[in-house]
Amino acid sequence: MNTAIQFFFWLPLALGVYAYLGYPFLLAVVARLRPARVLPPEPVSWPLLTLTVPCYNEAASLRQTLEYLLTLDYPADRRQILVISDASTDGTDDIVREFAARGVELVRLETRRGKSAAENAAGPVARGDIIVNTDATIRILPHALKALVRAFGDPTVGVASGRDVSVANTAEGQVASGESGYVGYEMSIRALETRVHSIVGASGCFYGIRRSLYDSRFPESLSRDFASALMAREHGYRAVSVDDAVCLVPRTKSLQSEFRRKIRTMARGLQTLWYKRHLLNPLRYGSFGWMLFSHKLCRWLVYPALPLSAIALVLASIHSMVWTGILALAIVGTALGVIGMRWSATRQAPALLSLAGFALASNVAGLLAWMQVLRNQRAAVWEPTRR
Known about the structure:
By secondary structure, the protein is an alpha/beta fold. It has twelve helices and eight strands.
């Protein structure tokens, strides 16, 4: 096999090994040289806080979510709860109005414009010094909000992100079991990045940002949670992950739902990274540029490299029985992945099929996301993940 074929075959593997193994190892080495970071003490007076809940047709879960938010351990007179309805049509707005006497406020968009547009609409009416964003299907643990806000006692912190814990959706049959392991892995990376300097993207489920950094003119087609950490670094702040700020995130109801979510979030992530691409410069932004390149761009480059690797494998198999065997294994693995992806959402798939399906769905979603970006397809309209 000539050098060019070998290069293209091994390229996605090399990118993946560095992004998912090499980068965390280097982070761990650097983190050991840094002192452990602890949360600042509780403030004498808690800052005024705005909790925003952007939603579209969330009547099935919103009432319970608002009940949880109202019972969080945070002074009621220092808290504003703001629900932004993205032109919902299922009674979402009426549910919010039921809570008006308990201090919950409604902002309604008359035309559906997407999550970032809903968050932009929250800016002019938010009264808090800190704005915390969450989702209608997420459960924040009672003491998590104070833990998140305590992080802002460090004047270098501009964004604080909660710790996602993936939990089973017992109301459904099949769940994407691979999702749980990936979420745990991602949280461990963010903990290391916090030790080193700054995370490169916040959790869309639960994160807070200083009011001074909140941009109400943020492009509607981009990802605000990812961009929040980038904007913090632009203004000289850090973004941190707070281990004690736990939120429970129900897994998606099916692998098909997770597949659609990955396409959407990765495409928006790529577009957001291009919008803030200057932050990749390590000469100007130091370790943050390296972490952004390693954590985000290297992972995403795996997907467009996969077709090149597949072509190289086919060419290599023509001249070698060893590579023919590898090609056969790749075909079998892909077939198992297809079965796993098409497995009925009402039945739990065997572990092997579930893992193969999750892997194939992730890779195909990555390719489709790149295709959307390269075609300049921007889907500003938000389709929430049903959990």
